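Annex B. Sample input.
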Amino acid sequence: MLSLRTVCLLARKTCLRNISALYITGDKANENYVTLQPYLDFKGTFGDRESLEQSIASRGMDIQLETVLGKYKKYQTHHEQLGKVSEERETVTKRLKELSKTEGSADQIEELKERGKSLRNDLKTLKQTLYPIEDDFIHDYLHLPNRLHALCPTGGEEKLLYRHRVPSSGQKGSSHLARKDLVYFVDNNRYYMMEQAAHFDVNATQSLARYFVSKGDFIQTANPDFVRCVLLEANGTPLDDYHLVREEQLQNKINTAYLTGGAAFESYLGAVTKLCVYPSVLPLRYVCCGRSYSRAEAEINGPNPSLYTATQSNAVQSFVGTQTAGEADFQMEHILSLAADFYKALDIPFRIVYSPARDLTAAESLRASIEVFAPSLQRYICVGRISNYADFVSKRILFSTRREKHYDFLHLVGGPVLYTSRLIGALLEHNVSLEDCKLLGSASQKPTLQQDLQQFKDLFT
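Annex B, continued. Sample output.
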């Protein structure tokens, strides 16, 4: 019998969209403008078939690679035929110009004109024939996953990297929802932090972001709360993870907007799409505080609604761009080191694990999950994660750096290093006083709740 976690993951993996905002064929360009034309690396994708097959199988994706390769061969044949006709037409046009300058015979010129018209009609017919073939193949191609990192577990079990304090094997603890003086919980979409919980909710994100800036040489940013569908597709994010925005005047019906929150990895992508940076500025290291509206793990951390399953939370998001795979690995370790320092200061049982391939999205090659122990559930729950995307996403959004006469697509690393709602729930269950928590990166003179309240009142006087 499949577990709830497995069923949820399989449902998300098999939910494929029948039309793409990331790649729009010419016949649809009249109705929907082309926002982005991704770099399609067919050679790199199909070059190592064994690695690609392993990635598909390990993730549990319902993709028949043989079928995709058959569509690719058909697409390639028609594309080559289209190229030959287009090349012949250019040759005829060039020859016609030469004869016009040298006053060639009227018969030759007329013959070339007729040939040019014939080739033009053939080209138009071939394009119309190619559009459905191209649409069918590219749609399947865009659902192919990234190759797995060498460190990614493929056997279905996570791999332990670090653990701080072993949780006691006592009785099941009471739920954090019992602390009604601090948490007023209605459902997964509505809850209210009160007193010290509200203070900690804000202070924790600001402290961690400040710690990344001061100790990790990150640059703090502010990101948009809404992201277009084209960027979610580029990142391989299941569209069910976020709430669809109902727009009254939608110019592009395919490229709809989604509410992600400013502390979502996808919210960074718009700023770096079609961006080419100098190698001297690398690595790019960004961090931001904001809201997260992800529904991805609500059912996994269930079944009972709580702060562990809430679809909105304050969060801290990291984003790093590097030139090589080796540098990406180093930056991932750097982020994990900073995050581990922050959680160690709280002194509750937590661990860092490499998630198995079946839990990854199509764009991720490796994911490290930061998990704290929840006494009420008697298991670990994810409060943050860092992912390595290699150059998979950068090729789709054209995020590159110039090296001499060549362009290299950047390797991306990042993810939410903190979800405050889940952390607060775990801290309450461990009977930790939120007011006395040690937060790395917090201001030297820690403001009290009364001072914060007075500062808020002063805004209106």
